[in-house]
Amino acid sequence: MRLSQFHLATVKEVPAEAELVSHKLMLRAGMIRKLAAGLYTWTPLGLRVLRKVEAVVREEMDRAGAIEMLMPTVQPRELWEETGRWEKFGGQLLKIADRKAQDFCYAPTAEEVITDFARQELKSYKQLPVNFYQIQTKFRDEIRPRFGVMRAREFLMKDAYSFHLGQESLAQTYQAMYDAYGRIFTRLGLKFRAVQADTGAIGGNASHEFQVIADSGEDVIAFSDGSDYAANVEKAEALSPAIARPAPSAALSRVDTPKQKTIDEVSAFLRVPATQCVKTLIVKGREGLVALCLRGDHAFNEVKANKLPELTDDIVMASEEEIVAAIGAKPGSIGPVGLPESIPLIVDRSAAVLADFVCGGNTDDTHYTGANWERDARITRVEDIRQVVAGDPSPDGLGTLRIARGIEVGHVFQLGSKYAEAMDATVLDDQGKAQVMLMGCYGIGVSRIVAAAIEQRHDDAGILWPEPMAPWRVAVCMINPKGQAEVTAAAESLYSELAARGIEVVLDDRGLRPGAMFADMELIGIPHRVVVSERGVAAGTLEYRARDAAESRQVTVDELLRLFG
Amino acid sequence: MRLSQFHLATVKEVPAEAELVSHKLMLRAGMIRKLAAGLYTWTPLGLRVLRKVEAVVREEMDRAGAIEMLMPTVQPRELWEETGRWEKFGGQLLKIADRKAQDFCYAPTAEEVITDFARQELKSYKQLPVNFYQIQTKFRDEIRPRFGVMRAREFLMKDAYSFHLGQESLAQTYQAMYDAYGRIFTRLGLKFRAVQADTGAIGGNASHEFQVIADSGEDVIAFSDGSDYAANVEKAEALSPAIARPAPSAALSRVDTPKQKTIDEVSAFLRVPATQCVKTLIVKGREGLVALCLRGDHAFNEVKANKLPELTDDIVMASEEEIVAAIGAKPGSIGPVGLPESIPLIVDRSAAVLADFVCGGNTDDTHYTGANWERDARITRVEDIRQVVAGDPSPDGLGTLRIARGIEVGHVFQLGSKYAEAMDATVLDDQGKAQVMLMGCYGIGVSRIVAAAIEQRHDDAGILWPEPMAPWRVAVCMINPKGQAEVTAAAESLYSELAARGIEVVLDDRGLRPGAMFADMELIGIPHRVVVSERGVAAGTLEYRARDAAESRQVTVDELLRLFG
Questions:
Q1: Closest residue, chain B, to A71 (C-alpha)
Q2: Is A94 close to B98, i.e. CB distance below 8 A?
Q3: pLDDT tens digit sequence for B98-127
């Protein structure tokens, strides 16, 4: 490609709303242009990168035996009614009425449509297992679309759905997809981790997220320094401390703590470390209020608490009024000692091994010191309801947990029978008996990968693409202000030579000043840059610089070609 | 690909609503499955064909210098308001309100979005000409979706838009696209014609349709047997007859024609050929009624009449009441003789050269014989308002017109300044002065091509794909009921040998009976079939049959390989 015949449009200024580095750089490099909130046009440059990601995803899906197909983006309400998701999916589901007032949605995902397809197409166990996928535009009506294509409303997704008779077959395909995802992100040159994930509202048995490691990531993951263990912090188990609870040694004593409400305040006021305090949350349970106790320095994990039988799917904190009415004190002074018997008291594993701790006094502006479980406060049940922290032991018993931030770019799920049962998708087994199929689903955020890669790989000058994602592998920059025929010929010849070897090369023949040209090539992240100039042609050398190298160096044409095998 | 690992699902019965051969065959071959009215899932088999068409379109667009990009499918109302098309586009525009009650549409086309992109991206004449394209899902909310993917609501389209300073540049790119379209349809192995088309409501100067010739086509095209001339009949000019109007030789005479209303009835009743009759249509013009006279055997061409200054864009016939009120007789007895002076009388070129003709008497149940222009009836103006018929002289003066039916698969337009002006898309010219850009637009119905190819190429057994569109080029059918190792080895070896040569091959290893296997391969239209059987392995031969050949023949492996170069 000659840049003079391409539409490259780097820009200097980007709107203030672009917070993330990837969003800024994609706008500055001219990869995307905003059409409306959460809607982006992929420019020719951006599309080149997007298509490279798409191609790697397709190759590895095909290699893993998945079969590509294509479902409509517009899906009828009736199918979504069958699974109850027409209502349950929430505001992200973009609902559409056609000219005949029939209801449809713009697909945010395709479990319903593929299950409908499967129940018509698959009749016999002999057709199983089968794994269908598509690479297709999806729409989620985010309430606050932001971060460019990282959280766009319209985006490109690879979604795959497998069908099985029996869990063993599902587990096999799940593993095949897990492996394929590993190959995809490895081939794309990304640092990533496959982490255990909560299966959440989508249901099912097993689930892994594929997280690109980046400081700006919205997800927090915990991984072991001594094993392959990795999990979303939402899911990572905090083991019971190895120590037993010490015997009480202090007497229970109520102290005044005027206006001291948070753990930090109380800890500082009483000169007791937060690790020796117990904090108590009051939430609304299925049958009245529930108290949750955690060690003062630990964060509450809502996803884990969601699974407690006492609580509802969406945890709602009790209001101040409700707390005062039930306990007689305001939040900030609540604690387990003397809590009304009607309120179940769920204690986190790490809080449960404390002795002589500080906790709220259940009277405004007071706390207890020297509090002890059993002696002073009952325990309804000990549970894991906190977020893990760096330094916690790994749940698999091997090593210690570390914490990193990640961007979710892939997700694999064992859905089990959830959708097939709701939609009566059965096949005949080898006995001729109808059996509900089991399903897996496997998603990759194709457009999000582009942004995630930039979050992981950039510097002050711009993007550092992994080679497989770069719009071009090599840029030949021609510096020829005098329009000398030898310089043009040398640049054209090098360009042709590289192209003939199947190396994706772009010739910057726009006639810009060297500085502007180099800045553009660095901004758009071309991995290899070669300069053809009058001086170089005279000396028989080229100036070569790798995008991630500190300096350029002089090479001959032969040396350059050897760089690319 | 091994069919045992593919999802091939041919079916015997198709719904009665499938009228077109292509719709029936695509359902029977299992290429598409209906999700809802006008919404189709492309199965793995169907998608293979669709992607092949897409690839050829992309290659030729790239070769012609167009640059691929990707716009959102969901577009904001504001841009459509700028051109007035939010209202004017009509019911085909699928309108969508998001969760914040902002209005959007599912793009049926992208003139507004690309013009908005261009007015932001293009600042200088130096960036022109430029031609952007995308291959993307579109939606048109057809009032009566039918014919499968031929007239689906959601469909795959290639749309390109070029920007220019000056008509000469627009004409050049238009020609380049015209040529590229010719290469695309030629490479796809289709019989087609590029025909002059009416520019219709989209406006602009020049326009050609690319029509795949097929008896089931909805479009009618006229082409010369003596030149390259071809046009949609809507557009094809009917020349003035070479003969002059004969002098009157008969006297005007009113005759009773009780209950004879149509030309056929009057012609039979009076024993006068339809070619010697004049029929008169009364339509509502901008300022009252207008009469249109045609030769009895000719069809009225509304598109041509639309352009008459007396008439409105959408021609509306006058009602019986209006006609009776204005003329005093009902439709069926109306004619030019004695028509009120207030009604302009537009006469078709072929009707204008008649003498001694029959026409309505303007009194119920009467006609005139021996009528003559000028002597008996005035002529306001002579115009071309009829459809051409086979045998008419070609408008370019070379040869005679023939008539064929076609399926529109491509359309190129010179839009001129229509959109750029409405949206104020300008660039600075070499004098630094802002100039409105000129635009061209170029569409290809990618998914429709699949159906059109089937309409053109099929037989009783199924589809006959042109090789570039076939899901696979060769099918190796293994007949091995005894499970003999030599037969399996021979089939696998042939499969590998073909695949190694880059020939797209499918191995039918499903273990079906030969008849069922052959029927499937014929239905899905694989161009070349090879049978590996016990007998063949023993004889060292293969049974080969081309899809379009009457008989199979025995070949050696070497002979077979030579077939594919």
A1: B41
A2: yes
A3: 999 999 999 999 999 999 999 999 999 999
CA distance A271 to chain B (A): 50
Question: Smallest CA–CA separation between B195 and chain A, in Å?
Answer: 30
Residue A248 · residue A284 · CB < 8 Å: no
Q: What is the mean pLDDT of each run of 10 residues along chain A (565 residues)?
A: 94 90 97 97 98 98 98 98 96 96 97 98 96 98 92 97 96 97 98 85 74 94 93 92 94 95 95 96 94 97 91 88 95 95 96 97 96 96 96 94 96 95 97 97 98 97 97 96 94 96 96 95 97 94 95 94 88
User: Which structural domains are found in chain B, ordered by start?
Assistant: 3-72+108-237+403-454 (3.30.930.10), 253-383 (3.90.960.10), 472-563 (3.40.50.800)
Contact A171, A177 (CB under 8 A): no
Nearest CA to A472 out of A51, A9, A23, A18 is that of A51
Q: Say which residues have a Cβ less than 8 Å from residue A432's Cβ, sequence separation at least 6.
A: none
Which H, E and C letters describe A43-106, residue by residue? CHHHHHHHHHHHHHHHHHHHHCCCEECECCCEEEHHHHHHCCHHHHCCCCCEEEECCCCCEEEE
Rg of the Cα atoms in chain B:
29
Question: What whole-number distance in Å separates Cα of residue B293 and Cα of residue B279?
Answer: 6
By CB atoms closer than 10 A (0-12, 13-18, 19+), residue A333 is: buried
Which residue from B7, B35, B141 is facing A130, i.e. has the nearest CB? B7
Contact across the interface for A41 and B67, Cβ inside 8 Å: no
CA distance A155 to chain B (A): 9
B203 at the A interface (CB within 8 A)? no
SS3 percent helix, strand, coil of chain B, rounded to 5, is 30, 30, 40
A102 contacts on B by Cβ (under 8 Å): 36
Contacts of B259 (CB under 8 A, 6+ apart): B265, B365
Q: What are phi and psi of B85, to 5 degrees?
A: -80, -10
In this structure, what token pair is assigned to residue A73?
Answer: 């983006």
pLDDT in tens, A353-405: 999 999 999 999 999 999 999 999 999 999 999 999 999 999 999 999 999 99
Tell me the one-letter amino acid at A434. Answer: A
| Distance (Å) from the alpha carbon of B154 to chain A's nearest alpha carbon | 7
Q: B215: Cβ–Cβ under 8 A, 6 or more apart, which residues?
A: B405, B455
* Residue B104 token pair: 């959007």
Q: Give the mutation candidate from B12, B75, B96 for the A interface (greatest A CB count, under 10 A).
A: B96
- ipTM higher than threshold 0.85: yes
> Chain A neighbours among B 132-161 (CB < 8 Å)?
132, 137, 139, 141, 143, 153-154
